[in-house]
Design a protein that fits this description.
Elements: E1 2-4, E2 7-9, H1 54-66, H2 68-71, E3 72-73, H3 81-85, E4 88-89, H4 94-110, E5 121-124, E6 129-132, E7 139-143, H5 148-156, E8 160-161, E9 169-172, H6 178-182, E10 189-190, H7 197-200, H8 202-216, E11 227-230, H9 234-245, E12 253-261, E13 271-275, E14 285-289, E15 296-297, E16 300-313, E17 316-328, H10 343-346, H11 350-353, E18 373-375, H12 376-385, H13 390-419, E19 426-427, E20 429-437, E21 443-450, H14 459-476, H15 487-498, H16 525-542, E22 547-551, H17 568-580, H18 585-589, H19 592-599
Helix pairs in contact: 1-4, 5-14, 14-16, 15-16, 15-19, 16-17
Organism: Carpediemonas membranifera
Region (Disordered): 60-83, 502-529, 605-626
Biased composition (Basic and acidic residues): 60-72
Length: 626
């Protein structure tokens, strides 16, 4: 225990093994503070001088309690209960009152020794503040889940697990409740967006895409097979089949269709049917036309697991990772095969095919094109060798991902703006897009996975998923929360660009929309400046990782007319990247001084690193998920 100024300060820290108890008083030389990291705290810049013995403070407090009745004078001039209720305390000895308050705060600080925080802490009991040391430890929390790869990655980066609310990142295994978002602090991150079921539930995804196809045109949203939500759309399905096939009987062959529960995952409850009588009339399922002409490799059907993360819905910011998985069926494809063995032919889910004796498990992460599971890079290499335009296939997949999130953006953005405003909480989410290529190499969206599986059953799984997780945390910046730059300087530097995308001036043809400029709400310049700065910071952190941004992008103007709600921040982000394309950041802003003012970095050619990025964990650090 040391005394600083006229306050009591407690320093529980492994570097200071001395933990005082009431009644013991160390001198100024009892422990050395010369090299203690907490010396950077403002409270320790005052002179160190001794205080009177705390027993005198205790006696003053006891005396105050005894004299309380005498110190209370009735305002009404009467005595008794009625007069005492309207009385105000009149303490004549100001010094005793100050000492008593110091003692009360001192007792509260002493309680820290009973439950040490595990961090160097300086408690200023007069100002009722606690100062963290210059080298804090970041905490993470696992809630309703136990993902080993996430825990191992964070702990390898120096995070510590906590069960309290003092965390920097929370990894939750279910849909996030509004109460959690409302109590979050601005520096905290959580791995789900509110109402993310709009894209992950099969019925909601079908509903949102069908709505957009009706409003914006079916040629824009024709990337999912013909789908019906049952039992709500059973009569619609029956009418369509009668138009094609005539009178329907239970034995009428309707062609292959696939049935999936509306809210299931990992291949549970999936069936392939081809007769009208096999369509369920009860139960909440979705019925989709089965794609019976898939692109085959070595005679096997396969699908792609694309990892996507969304860091913002207002404005929309979508990133796709270069690493992914290619999952093969374990029996050669035959379109007319039905029965129990058909699931190993028509379904590519790993959770189903791993039970087939023909499943080939990958045993070496260096072999990326062997077994029943490949890496995405291995697939692109194979397609290039076959003369396929991989760039076009990737562009088509990116187009599907962007339009999928545009279809759900109004609902999720509204919930996020209400519950997870940037001043209260920071959300992000990792999605798993399942894409199927048909015989013409046209990609089709099968489903979007909420909380895609991060289990590492094979060395290849560990290699891919650990890279995705570590790159995600690096791009978020949770490893090194930095104090904000000078707001006035930042706002001045970005004003030049914001004026270029103001609704008072016409946009280029790339940003023409169906909504007249005069009818749009005026953008908030402060918000637009903040969004542009955040976009640039993410670009800096993204360098060196496997993430690439697909929206906003320099050619993102072609998507702006598809948004149901026109947001100036989306237009500003696209315009910002369009000006940046073909030149440096300095050229986009008209000078290097503006770049420094906007970003706070003097050299925009290199990625600034206050701390090393999060590294992916090795196989020896991760156990198989339970």
């Amino acid at each position: 225990m040391v005394t600083i100024g006229q306050t009591w300060h407690l320093l529980p820290c492994p570097a200071l093994p001395y933990h005082p108890t009431p009644g013991s008083y160390p001198t100024r030389n009892s422990c050395s503070l010369a090299h203690h990291p907490a010396m950077a705290s403002p409270a320790l810049k005052e002179l160190i001088r001794p205080l009177p013995d705390y027993r005198s403070v205790l006696r003053a407090e006891q005396t105050k309690q005894k004299e309380r009745k005498d110190a209370v004078k009735p305002l009404s001039g009467r005595s008794g209960k009625n007069g005492a209720l309207a009385a105000l305390p009149q303490v004549t000895d100001a010094k005793k009152q100050q000492q008593a308050h110091q003692y009360i705060r001192f007792k509260r600080v002493l309680s820290l020794t009973r439950s040490p925080l595990g961090l160097p802490v300086v408690a200023d009991v007069v100002r009722s503040k606690t100062y963290r040391a210059a080298c804090p430890v970041l905490f993470y929390k696992m809630y309703k889940t136990n993902v080993t790869i996430v825990r191992a990655t964070l702990e390898a980066a120096g995070f510590r697990e906590t069960t309290t609310a003092d965390w920097s990142l929370c990894w939750i295994g279910q849909h996030v409740r509004p109460s959690i978002l409302e109590h979050m602090k601005p520096h905290q991150f959580i791995n789900h967006w509110p109402r993310s079921y709009e894209v992950s539930r099969k019925d909601r995804l079908c509903h949102n895409i069908s709505r957009m196809a009706t409003v914006k045109g079916r040629h824009h949203f024709s990337f999912i097979p013909e789908t019906y939500i049952l039992p709500d759309e059973y009569s619609m399905l029956k009418d369509q089949l009668e138009k094609k096939l005539g009178r329907l009987e239970p034995s009428t062959v309707i062609g292959p269709h696939i049935i999936k529960p509306q809210a299931s995952s990992r291949g549970r409850g999936i069936e392939v049917v081809d007769k009208f009588g096999q369509i369920p009339t009860t139960g909440k399922v979705v019925l989709s036309r089965y794609l019976d002409d898939p692109y085959l490799l070595n005679g096997y059907k396969f699908d792609l697991r694309i990892y996507v993360t969304v860091l913002s819905f207002d404005p929309l910011r979508i990133y796709v990772h270069e690493q992914g998985l290619v999952r093969f069926a374990t029996e050669k494809f035959r379109s007319n095969l039905r029965g129990a063995a058909a699931k190993y032919v028509h379904l590519t889910n790993y959770s189903i095919n791993k039970h087939n004796p023909h499943f080939e498990k990958n045993k070496d992460d260096k072999v990326e094109d062997g077994g029943s599971k490949w890496t995405l890079a291995a697939l692109w290499s194979r397609l290039r060798a076959l003369g396929v335009s991989v760039a076009k296939v990737q562009a088509d997949i990116d187009d599907i991902i962007v339009k999928t999130f545009i279809s759900v953006e109004p609902a999720i953005a509204a919930a996020a703006n209400t519950l997870a405003r940037p001043s209260k909480a920071r959300c992000f989410e990792l999605y798993g897009f399942d894409i199927l290529l048909d015989s013409n190499l046209r990609p089709w969206l099968l489903e979007v996975n909420f909380s895609p599986s991060l289990s590492c059953d094979t060395p290849l799984d560990l290699k891919i998923k650990s890279t995705v997780i570590s790159d995600t945390f690096t791009m978020l910046g949770v490893t090194a929360p930095q104090p904000p730059a000078n707001p006035s300087r930042t706002m001045r530097g970005v004003s030049q660009f914001v004026s270029k995308v103001s609704p008072t001036r016409p946009h280029t043809r790339a940003f023409e929309t169906r909504q007249p400029l005069a009818s749009r709400p005026a953008p908030s310049e402060t918000q637009t400046k903040r969004h542009i700065r955040q976009l640039h910071l993410e670009s800096q952190r993204m360098a060196g990782t496997g993430w690439r941004r697909i929206f906003p992008s320099p050619d993102g103007g072609k998507y702006l007319h598809l948004f149901e709600i026109k947001r100036p921040s989306d237009e500003a982000a696209v315009a910002f990247l369009l000006e940046k394309e073909g030149g440096t950041m300095s050229r986009a802003f008209g000078g290097g001084s503006n770049v420094t003012a906007i970003t706070g970095f003097t050299d925009t050619r290199r990625r600034p690193r206050s701390v090393p990025p999060v590294r992916r964990v090795q196989s020896g650090l991760v156990r198989r998920d339970r």
